[in-house]
Structure formats: structure tokens, C-alpha cells
């Protein structure tokens, strides 16, 4: 046994027993060794030795629990070897395997079985795995939503039509599932829902800044303006000493600074006051001529330009005043109430279904334990919790940073007033927020607990373990330099000061080589138009990384050998490539490594259902159920089980091109087809009498699955996957399900939901370079770490969900205006999105910390930038020590976080020079050991160029004439001259030219204008009433069919509506929705009287005309487009015509002109088309808003280029407008 020589801090953590203890153990500080040492200090206390079963030890995973138990057993064995006669230690060996060392779920399950009678719970309940729970939740939620549709109460109808609007109910399922999932991190989910709903009311607020959402937004906005004011002041300092700049730029910058400071101060006055202050005047910069330092001049102007763009973005956040924001919140509240009610109903139904099946899922284990251990009203420990707490001398929780509120309450309840809690973890490595981990729990204690030595007896205290026993000093210094400059309370949720820094504890031989190498790969010379996440980018970076590894192996790079105390050449097994998300790039990197003769640890198929062996068995089961499915059938034929080559499959299809592929196989007389059909027929007969698991095992034996895939690379892992798949089928059958079809359907639903089953690891396979995600690397260490793909942009897809959920702020929905099908961001959503984005970025920062602390001797960071010089030029003005938190929050990737402080280092000169910017930003001291910073071109581009040159030389040698090459190039470079016209639609409707149409189409999931092929069922409209769009349709029908001679009063209009209803021109619901007062008001207005006096009218006039495409798509050439539409009303006169378009939008008085702007394109289309049809010019293009009784005329109807103008109610163009 290697002797453990603890540092003073480690010794204190092992021995301190004065009260609750939080150990903040930095990366590589030996926290697990300290936990074991503390446990043995208890077991071997000379005055009061304890037994190991008196301790509750909680770990994060089953694997970690097994490893910890094994290390405790090894320690016991080693101590017994030194003291064989120690009976107490011998007793601990016997007690070890009944000691409570496991996950929190294992502890909760044991507790529930023991006290099942208290909760009226069957003690033999079974814990459902996640795959089974997902399917069951989907089934229950489907039933609950179906029942709600049958009832169709107004709140649910609004929820379905707004938040869950889409082509189907998928969004509604996602919203409820997401909310339910987030609820599981709360000890009392029902109480949290009630509190959220109560806080969603805005009646008591007069200003949006008084609300919890507005306060957060204003606080962040004030920070932003302070940051921008600092940048402006920095620009003013830069121009000091340069009279031309001070004279011409100084006054403008000084004025901007003053406005920004006043804006920041106005945040304390409320939302509307701050909103008014965002209208900042940036003025005009004076002309500076003949100034020599153009770089300085452009840098100062760039600061102003960036500030201006940021203010414009801020203005969008504050685009609505308090009244509008509160109106939006009130509008969505019924839908929010319905969502909470639906979620509660689903939760209750799901609980009933699980109880009926004798099941409990993982969240049940925690929440039922909370019911058992706490008082529901107060959250205080129950009497039973007090009884249980007396069992444990101490409760040890490892990886405490990954705890959630439910688990934390459990630990507290079974402790003795939290005085016997030993909590160890590192909040900087909390990277599982997506699994509901809450790092704020650790942070709260970290900030509140006093250091050991300063705390009173019985008072909670903390100990920091900052000495790292893993990495070289250069790596630690690089990590400290980076995180001291980017971590802060504002950005990252905590400071990174001397207490958080890593200090070297490992001894390594001296090395002259830089421990950190930063490689910036520039794609600008290769493809300036390449996208940020293009496949080419991954290929180039993979090629570079493979070359770097080859270089390390060939050199060879020397690593420390603890066995000999000397050094040895690095091996492939010593190297790991880390990426944030390697699943879609692993194969690319593996291919590049293979090209250089470097093997990869494992096969690279880390996803269960994507592995070859599982894909084949799934395809085979699918065709056993139904062979007339081409894709699975061809997959089976092409697999190594049957061995049909692609050429052979093409041959079969060529012989029988008609019908599906199964028919082609049946028609073929070839021996291989006959043999396959015989095997398939025999297996299908067998399948009818077998359970799913027995059938799968029969297929393995009959077709040699285990042998065939076992002989492939990674065979042992493939065999484990096949066995695991069969085991899943056995569990499926044991749960009361039966049949091949149901099993295949369940697997299909699992895949659609993105769920995975067990996937065997690659630890038993031959060595090679490892390719891991950063999350998978946590807890591991490697001599050489290559952190790749750091330029990958942060994933912000979660922020696009229709409803956002936050633990403290509640829900953040959008508002959908059903009239024009446009979504608006509510006040709550803006705040929730802001908070979730902050937490996401803090998590990404911690992920980066984990990645940089895996390396022992060499850390290589690579980033591939589309335009490296351009990126550096953009970042350099904001580079600093520390970097402004506001600047960091606007970064798009980890690469930008790393570059911002790196550009201030002396070694960053190569990057600054590449960007054409000389000098070094002003910085303080503290560079630490040198970095190796390089700017690299793309080797693959150079290689491709050399290959092209070699090919050209070879062609010349073969005597290919230049004329022939020219002709070939001409043919290959042929561009179809009418290419633009192929992109044009053949038909265009006038409605599509409405102003906001392009916005709605821009996003795939954005709600679109609904076009019902059929009217909504009568039972829906009877229960729910008509939607806004349907009420508008009713009013249009009245205007289409009303007899103008009987429209002089509201009474006459009512009679006309009754007549239309009797003639089945209107439904009763439409008749009730039509407003006779609004119709009568139109005919009493100037425009209505003009309509009544008109000689010739066209009503609901349908047109279809061919017009030049150039009119709608500039640059479209000579093509034509069919324009179709329906004009509500057209007044024909000898010298021209007037178009009147009726609008039923909900619009405020005074806002008609703004709303009319959206319809300009539509009105112009009417005018252009009717001009073509009638041969007359358009005199006037009019809009009439029934909501306000106001008419507006579009200026310049011949050109359709002006803005709408308006007058009072019913006014038309008579010179009074």
C-alpha cells in the first residue's frame, strides 16, 4: 500500500468533527482519498472506534459506488496485512458488504421498502428503468390529453391554440413533458405549481419593473449599460493626447457616456423610465483628416459602433411599455392555468398507473422519501426521520455539487440538524444541470460557511482542497490564468480567486516544453463562405489533430513513468481527444487518425441503437413482423448475416423494377434469394409462438449473430450489446406486454424520443487514442489531452421552446395573437430566457474547467475559425484581464472565451499580427509560464493543392491537349442561364405579400397562418366559440351577401343576417359573432355612403392574372407568375377604380396606420391585378378597420410605394385627410 501523506488541508478534512463540514475539493485534489481516510479515522479511533455500517455514504452513480466500496475493501486488506490480529478491522471486512454505500436512489428505495406500510406502498415494488418510464408517460399523457379534448374547456382550448399551436399535438406533449420533468427537482411539486400560478398575476403592479421578471431584466440591463459606459470611457482615454481625435470625437463620446450613465441610473426608476432612456443619440463624429494612426482611429470608432448595436438590441428588449407587457401576461394567464392543471392531472394519472403496475420511477423514490421524512406543511424532519437519523454517526455525500433540492432535503432530514453532514465536491465541476443538478445549493453553503478555524463549535464550516496532484505546474498556471480572467459572480456564478486557484502537488521532471499549446486553425484561405459548423471544418480540424498526434508519437514526446521515476515515450493510450459533443464528429476524427496509422480506443459507436449489430437485429425483427418494408429488408440482406453485396441487390432490383423489394426477391429464381426466403419463412413461423426475448435468442443461435459480430472489431462489446438487447426484451415481456409487433413499436418510440439502452464500453478492447465527450471524461486523467472543436457554437435550442421553465421564476410563455398568428415574447419569458441563458453559459464555463483539468503533462487546445484574422480583430478591442462579463456573455463559443485573455499574452503577438493589429493590449502582471500559441493554415488545403499540381503534371505527361482541357472546363462550368427562374414559385397569392409573411416563414417551427380544409366541427365551435379568425370570416361573409338597400341601421343589418342564416349562407355561430353595429357604422361613414352611391361594384371579386415575375422578385428575368386573390370590394368608375379591403384585426385607436403598413403589399397586388383585368388605373387603395371604424388610403396607388395615411372614422380621400 502506498503511504498516504496528507497535506494539512487534507488532514483537517479527514479529522475535523466539530460540526457540518463542506469540503470544496478542486480538480485532482484527492477528494475520494480524503473521504476514505476520514472514514478510516472513524473506524480506527483509538478512543471510540466505530463500525462501517454506522455511516451512510452517498455517491453519484452505481459505478462510483462500486469503485468506492472496492477501494475501501483494498484499504481494509492493506491495513489488515499490517495488523493481522486486529479483530475490529476483521469485523469491518464482514460489515463492509452490508454498509450503506450507494446512490441516493438506492438509499431511498431501501427506505421505502422498509417503511412501505407508512405510505401504503407495496414493499415489492419494482423500479422502472428510464426507457420503460418514457413509454408509460407517453401512454398516460396521450390518454389525459384526449380526455381534455373531449371536454374542450376554454382554458385548454386557448392552450392548444396558442402555446401548443402546430401541425399536430407534438408541441403540447413537449410542453407538458418538459414542465413535468422540471417539477421533479422540487420537493413539493404541487406546491411549486400553486406558487408559480399565484405569482403569475400582475394586478398589483403599476410598472413592469416592480414584478420579479422586470426586476431581473432591469438589473441585467443596468449592468450592461455600466459595461458599455466603461468601454466609452476607455475610448476617451485612448484618444487622450491626440488633439485631432479629442477635438472631433471627444464631445460625441462624452455625450454618449453621459447618456449611458443616466440610462443606468434610470433602472431604479422603473421599466418605463428605463425604456424612455434607451433612445440614445449617438450623434455624428467629426471628420478627422490626415491622422496617421489609422488603427487607433478605427479602434475608437469600432467601440462606438459596437455600443450602438448593443443599444439597438437593448431597445428591442424594452420595445413594449408596462401596459402592453401586463396585457400580454393577462392574455396568456388562462393558458398557463390550463397548462398547470393539465400537468397536475397528468402527474396524478401517471402515479395511479405506476401504482397499479407496482412500479416506481427514480423521481418517485426521491419524492416518496421526502413524504416519509418531512412534514408536508413546514418541510421540517418528521418523527420517523429523527428515528432514522440516530442510525448514522455521519452522512458522507460525494459529488455534492450535483445534488438537487429534493436530495438535499433528504440528506438534511436524516442528519442530526445537519451537524453530522460531510459534504465533498467541487462546484466548478458541476456540469449536470440538464439532469436537474442545482449548483446553487453548494454555492450557498460555500459562501455562508466560515472557514475551519474561524467557526464556533457546532457551527458549519468549510475546508478548501486546492493542491492538485494530477497536472504539471504549467497546466495549472494556464488554467488559473484563464479562469481568473473569465470567472466572476456575474458570469459563471462565482469568483475565481486565490482560494479557487489550483496549486501544484505532483512532482514531475523539468521540461522546457510549454505545457499548454493553443492552435488556431484558419479556414479563410480555403473557404471564406464555409459555415461555422460545416463538415469541412470538422475534417480540417480532425486532419490537424491527427497530424499533431502523429508528431507526438514520432518525436517521441516523453511522459513521466511513476513506476520507474523516469520518463518514457508517449503511447497512443496516453492520449485523449476531448470534445463538447463528439457524437457527430467521432467518425471523422477516427478516419483521420486511421489515415496516419493511429488506432482509436473502441469502435466509435457509442449510441446503442446506431451500432451495427443492434441495427441489424432491429431490422430483422421488423421484417419478421412485416417483410414488405424496403429499408429494413435491404439492411438485413446487406448485413454480414446474409452477405448480399450492393451490386447483387442492384441486380435483383434491375431484374424486377416494379413493386417493393420483397416482391423482387420473391420473383427471383436465384438460389440466394430462394435460400433467404426459406430462412425468412421458417423464422416467421417460429416467431408466432415465441415471446420477444426467446425469439431474439433463437435468432442469435439460428443465424450466428454472436459469432459473426463477435469476430468483428470490438467484438466483445458488440456481443454485450446483443445480450443487453435480449435482456431488454425479457423485461418487456415480464411487464405484461406481449408480441413482436408491440416490442418493435416500443423500440421505435424509444428511438423517436432519443432514449438509449445500455451500451457496452470499450474498456476491454485493444488500446488506442480515446475520443470522449468532456462529460464522459469527468473523473479521468490522461498524460496528453487534446481539447478539440472549441469553436463549436453554444447550443441555444432550448431557448426556442414554446414554454420555458425556471426553478425560481416559474414559466415563461409566448403570447400568440390568433388574429394574425404572430408570437410575442411576454415579460415572464424575457426574464426566464435571460436567466436560463446565464445558467447555460455558467454551465458551459464549468464544462471548460473540467476539460482543461484532465491533462497531466501536455494540454493542446485547437480551434478552427472560418476567418481567424476577422475573429481576432473583432475580439481584440474587448480582450483584457479580466474580461468584461458582458463581453463574455456575448461570445458564441469556448474558443472566444479562451482567445479573449490569450490575446493579451506576449505569445499572442502572432495572432495580433495576423489580424493586422500591432502592439499589446494594456494588461497587468501575471502571465505565468509561457504558452505555445500558433496560427496554422489548413494542411488539408495545402495537400489538396499539391495533389492538384501533381494531377496537372500527370495530364501534361499523357499529352492531353490544352484545347481539350479548355473544352472540358467550359462544359463543366456551364451555368444554366435561367437558374433564377427555377427558384420562382409558379403561383403567388395576394395574401402572401402581406408584410409579416416572410417573418412567419423564416422559422420552421414558427406558427403559420392556418388554412383549414374543412370548417371546424360544430361541437367545437358550440363549446368553445369561434376563434378571432373565424369571427373575421363571419363579418366578411356578411359584407359579401348583405343587400345594400337594407343596411341603413343596425336593425336592418340584423334582419339581413337572419336572412343569410336562413339561406344557410351563415351558420348560427357565425351569425351570432357578426357585429351588426359595426356593419351599420360602415354604411354611415363617408366611405360607406360612397359605396352605396356607386354605380358599379365588384364584391368578393376573384382574379387570376399572369404578371412579370420581376415585379415581385427583382432580378427574376423574363418569367411570369400567376397572381391570384379575392378583392373584398371594388368601386368602378370611368376614370379608374377604388379597392376597399375590410380588416377585422383587433387594433387600438390611433394604431391603424402602423397596422396598415403590414398590408401595403397585399393592397398593391389588388391594385395591380384589377388594373390588368379592368384596363383602368387604380385611383385609390383603401383599408377599413371594423374595430375602430376608420378608413385609411394608401398614397401613390399607381406606385404602391408610399405609407398609408388616415383620418377620422370613416374618412376617405376627399382632401380632408
UniProtKB/TrEMBL annotation:
It comes from the Bacteria. Keywords: ATP-binding, DNA damage, DNA repair, DNA-binding, Exonuclease, Helicase, Hydrolase, Isomerase, Nuclease, Nucleotide-binding. It is an enzyme of class 5 (isomerase). GO terms for molecular function: 3'-5' DNA helicase activity; ATP binding; ATP hydrolysis activity; DNA binding; exonuclease activity. Residues 1197-1217 are annotated as: Disordered. The keyword Membrane does not apply. It catalyses: Couples ATP hydrolysis with the unwinding of duplex DNA by translocating in the 3'-5' direction; ATP + H2O = ADP + phosphate + H(+). Its EC number is 5.6.2.4. InterPro entries: AddA, DNA_helicase_UvrD-like_C, DNA_helicase_UvrD/REP, P-loop_NTPase, PDDEXK-like_dom_sf, PDDEXK_AddAB-type, Restrct_endonuc-II-like, UvrD-like_ATP-bd. ATP binds at residues 25-32. Residues 473-779 form the UvrD-like helicase C-terminal domain. The keyword Nuclease applies. GO terms for cellular component: cytosol; DNA helicase complex. GO terms for biological process: double-strand break repair; recombinational repair. Residues 1199-1209 have a biased composition (Gly residues). Residues 4-472 form the UvrD-like helicase ATP-binding domain. PANTHER family: ATP-DEPENDENT HELICASE_NUCLEASE SUBUNIT A, UVRD / RECB / PCRA DNA HELICASE FAMILY MEMBER. This is DNA 3'-5' helicase.
Amino acid at each position: 500500500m502506498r503511504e498516504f501523506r496528507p497535506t494539512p488541508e487534507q488532514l483537517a478534512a479527514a479529522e475535523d468533527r466539530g460540526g457540518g463540514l463542506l469540503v470544496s475539493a478542486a480538480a485532482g485534489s484527492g477528494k475520494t482519498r480524503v473521504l476514505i481516510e476520514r472514514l478510516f479515522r472513524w473506524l480506527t479511533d483509538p478512543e471510540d472506534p466505530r463500525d462501517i455500517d454506522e455511516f451512510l455514504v452517498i455517491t453519484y452513480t452505481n459505478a462510483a459506488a462500486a469503485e468506492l466500496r472496492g477501494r475501501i475493501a483494498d484499504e481494509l486488506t492493506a491495513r489488515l496485512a499490517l495488523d493481522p490480529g486486529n479483530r475490529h478491522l476483521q469485523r469491518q471486512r464482514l460489515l463492509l458488504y452490508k454498509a450503506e454505500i450507494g446512490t441516493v436512489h438506492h438509499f431511498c428505495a431501501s427506505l421505502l421498502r422498509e417503511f412501505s406500510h407508512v405510505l401504503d406502498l407495496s414493499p415489492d415494488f419494482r423500479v422502472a428503468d428510464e426507457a420503460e418510464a418514457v413509454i408509460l408517460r407517453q401512454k398516460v399523457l396521450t390518454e389525459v390529453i384526449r380526455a381534455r379534448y373531449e371536454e374542450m374547456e376554454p382554458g385548454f382550448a386557448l392552450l392548444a391554440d396558442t402555446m401548443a399551436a402546430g401541425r399536430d399535438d407534438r408541441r403540447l406533449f413537449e410542453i407538458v413533458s418538459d414542465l413535468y420533468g422540471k417539477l421533479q427537482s422540487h420537493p413539493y411539486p404541487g406546491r411549486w405549481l400553486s406558487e408559480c400560478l399565484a405569482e403569475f398575476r400582475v394586478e398589483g403592479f403599476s410598472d413592469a419593473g416592480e414584478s420579479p421578471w422586470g426586476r431581473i431584466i432591469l438589473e441585467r440591463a443596468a449592468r450592461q449599460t455600466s459595461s458599455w459606459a466603461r468601454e466609452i470611457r476607455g475610448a476617451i482615454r485612448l484618444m487622450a493626447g491626440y488633439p485631432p481625435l479629442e477635438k472631433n470625437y471627444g464631445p460625441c463620446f462624452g455625450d454618449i457616456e453621459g447618456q449611458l450613465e443616466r440610462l443606468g441610473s434610470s433602472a431604479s426608476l422603473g421599466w418605463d423610465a428605463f425604456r424612455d432612456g434607451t433612445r440614445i443619440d449617438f450623434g455624428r463624429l467629426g471628420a478627422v483628416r490626415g491622422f496617421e494612426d489609422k488603427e487607433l482611429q478605427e479602434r475608437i470608432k469600432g467601440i462606438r459602433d459596437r455600443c450602438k448595436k448593443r443599444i439597438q438590441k437593448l431597445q428591442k428588449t424594452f420595445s413594449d411599455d408596462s401596459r402592453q407587457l401586463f396585457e400580454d401576461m393577462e392574455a396568456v394567464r388562462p393558458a398557463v392555468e390550463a397548462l398547470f392543471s393539465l400537468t397536475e392531472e397528468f402527474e396524478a394519472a401517471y402515479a395511479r398507473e405506476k401504482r397499479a403496475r407496482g412500479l416506481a420511477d427514480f423521481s418517485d423514490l426521491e419524492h416518496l422519501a421526502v413524504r416519509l421524512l418531512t412534514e408536508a406543511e413546514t418541510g421540517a424532519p418528521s418523527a420517523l426521520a429523527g428515528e432514522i437519523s440516530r442510525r448514522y454517526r455521519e452522512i458522507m455525500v460525494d459529488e455534492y455539487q450535483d445534488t438537487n433540492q429534493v436530495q438535499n432535503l433528504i440528506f438534511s432530514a436524516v442528519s442530526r440538524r445537519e451537524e453530522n453532514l460531510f459534504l465533498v465536491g467541487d462546484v466548478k465541476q458541476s456540469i449536470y444541470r440538464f439532469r436537474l443538478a442545482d449548483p446553487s445549493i453548494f454555492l450557498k453553503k460555500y459562501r455562508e460557511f466560515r472557514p475551519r478555524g474561524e467557526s464556533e463549535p457546532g457551527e458549519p464550516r468549510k475546508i478548501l482542497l486546492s493542491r492538485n496532484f494530477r497536472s504539471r505546474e504549467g497546466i495549472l498556471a494556464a488554467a488559473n490564468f484563464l479562469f481568473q480572467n473569465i470567472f466572476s459572480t456575474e458570469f459563471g456564478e462565482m469568483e475565481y480567486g486565490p482560494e479557487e486557484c489550483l496549486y501544484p502537488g505532483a512532482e514531475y521532471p523539468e521540461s522546457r516544453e510549454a505545457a499548454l499549446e493553443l492552435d488556431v486553425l484558419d479556414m479563410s484561405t480555403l473557404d471564406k463562405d464555409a459555415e461555422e459548423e460545416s463538415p469541412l471544418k470538422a475534417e480540417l480540424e480532425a486532419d490537424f489533430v491527427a497530424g499533431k498526434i502523429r508528431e507526438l508519437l514520432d518525436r517521441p514526446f516523453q511522459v513521466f513513468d511513476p513506476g520507474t521515476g523516469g520518463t518514457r515515450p508517449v503511447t497512443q493510450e496516453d492520449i485523449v481527444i476531448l470534445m463538447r459533443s463528439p457524437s457527430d464528429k467521432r467518425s471523422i476524427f477516427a478516419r483521420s487518425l486511421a489515415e496516419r496509422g493511429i488506432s482509436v480506443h473502441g469502435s466509435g459507436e457509442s449510441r446503442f441503437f446506431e451500432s451495427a449489430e443492434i441495427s441489424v437485429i432491429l431490422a430483422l425483427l421488423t421484417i419478421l413482423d412485416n417483410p414488405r418494408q424496403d429499408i429494413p429488408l435491404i439492411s438485413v440482406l446487406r448485413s454480414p448475416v446474409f452477405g448480399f453485396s450492393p451490386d447483387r441487390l442492384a441486380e435483383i432490383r434491375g431484374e424486377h423494377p416494379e413493386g417493393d423489394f420483397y416482391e423482387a426477391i420473391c420473383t427471383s429464381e436465384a438460389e440466394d434469394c430462394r435460400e433467404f426466403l426459406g430462412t425468412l419463412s421458417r423464422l416467421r413461423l417460429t416467431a408466432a409462438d415465441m415471446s420477444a426475448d426467446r425469439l431474439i435468442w433463437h435468432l442469435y443461435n439460428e443465424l450466428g449473430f454472436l459469432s459473426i459480430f463477435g469476430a468483428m472489431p470490438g467484438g466483445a462489446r458488440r456481443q454485450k450489446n446483443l445480450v443487453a438487447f435480449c435482456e431488454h426484451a425479457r423485461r418487456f415481456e415480464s411487464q405484461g406486454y406481449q408480441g413482436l409487433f408491440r416490442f418493435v413499436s416500443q423500440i421505435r418510440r424509444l428511438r423517436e424520443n432519443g432514449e438509449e439502452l445500455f451500451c457496452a464500453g470499450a474498456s476491454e478492447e485493444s488500446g488506442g487514442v480515446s475520443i470522449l465527450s468532456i462529460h464522459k471524461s469527468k473523473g479521468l486523467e490522461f498524460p496528453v489531452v487534446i481539447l478539440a472543436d472549441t469553436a463549436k457554437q453554444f447550443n441555444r435550442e432550448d431557448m426556442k421552446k414554446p414554454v420555458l421553465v425556471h426553478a425560481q421564476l416559474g414559466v415563461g410563455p409566448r403570447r400568440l395573437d390568433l388574429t394574425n398568428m404572430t408570437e410575442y415574447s411576454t415579460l415572464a419569458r424575457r426574464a426566464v430566457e435571460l436567466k436560463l441563458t446565464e445558467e447555460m453559459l455558467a454551465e458551459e464555463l464549468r464544462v471548460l474547467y473540467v476539460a482543461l483539468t484532465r491533462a497531466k503533462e501536455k494540454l493542446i487546445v485547437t480551434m478552427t475559425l472560418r476567418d481567424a484574422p476577422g475573429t481576432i480583430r473583432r475580439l481584440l478591442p474587448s480582450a483584457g484581464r479580466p474580461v468584461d462579463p458582458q463581453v463574455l456573455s456575448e461570445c458564441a463559443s469556448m474558443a472566444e472565451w479562451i482567445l479573449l485573455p490569450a490575446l493579451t499574452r506576449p505569445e499572442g503577438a502572432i495572432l495580433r499580427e495576423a489580424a493586422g493589429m500591432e502592439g499589446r493590449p494594456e494588461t497587468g502582471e501575471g502571465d505565468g509560464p509561457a504558452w505555445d500559441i500558433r496560427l496554422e493554415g489548413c494542411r488539408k488545403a495545402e495537400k489538396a493543392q499539391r495533389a492538384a499540381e501533381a494531377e496537372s503534371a500527370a495530364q501534361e505527361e499523357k499529352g492531353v491537349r490544352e484545347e481539350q482541357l479548355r473544352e472540358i472546363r467550359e462544359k463543366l462550368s456551364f451555368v444554366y442561364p435561367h437558374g433564377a427562374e427555377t427558384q420562382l414559385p409558379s403561383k403567388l397569392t395576394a395574401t402572401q405579400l402581406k408584410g409579416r409573411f416572410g417573418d412567419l416563414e423564416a422559422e420552421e417551427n414558427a406558427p403559420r397562418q392556418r388554412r383549414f380544409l374543412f370548417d371546424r366541427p360544430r361541437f367545437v365551435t358550440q363549446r368553445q366559440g369561434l376563434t378571432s379568425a373565424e369571427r373575421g370570416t363571419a363579418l366578411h361573409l356578411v359584407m359579401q351577401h348583405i343587400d345594400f338597400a337594407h343596411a341603413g341601421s343596425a336593425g336592418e343589418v340584423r334582419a339581413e343576417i337572419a336572412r343569410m342564416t336562413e339561406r344557410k349562407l351563415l351558420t348560427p355561430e357565425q351569425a351570432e359573432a357578426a357585429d351588426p353595429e359595426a356593419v351599420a357604422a360602415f354604411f354611415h361613414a363617408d366611405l360607406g355612403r360612397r359605396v352605396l352611391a356607386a354605380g358599379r361594384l365588384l364584391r368578393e371579386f376573384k382574379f387570376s392574372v399572369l404578371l412579370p415575375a420581376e415585379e415581385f422578385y427583382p432580378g427574376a428575368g423574363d418569367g411570369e407568375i400567376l397572381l391570384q386573390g379575392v378583392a373584398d370590394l371594388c368601386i368602378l368608375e370611368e376614370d379608374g377604380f377604388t379597392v376597399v379591403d375590410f380588416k377585422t384585426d383587433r387594433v387600438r385607436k390611433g394604431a391603424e396606420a402602423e397596422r396598415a403598413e403590414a398590408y401595403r403589399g397585399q393592397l398593391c397586388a389588388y391594385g395591380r391585378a384589377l388594373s390588368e383585368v379592368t384596363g383602368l388605373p387604380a385611383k385609390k387603395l383603401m383599408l377599413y378597420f371594423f374595430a375602430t371604424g376608420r378608413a385609411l388610403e394608401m398614397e401613390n396607388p399607381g406606385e404602391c410605394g408610399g405609407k398609408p395615411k388616415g383620418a377620422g372614422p370613416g374618412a376617405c380621400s376627399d382632401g380632408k385627410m
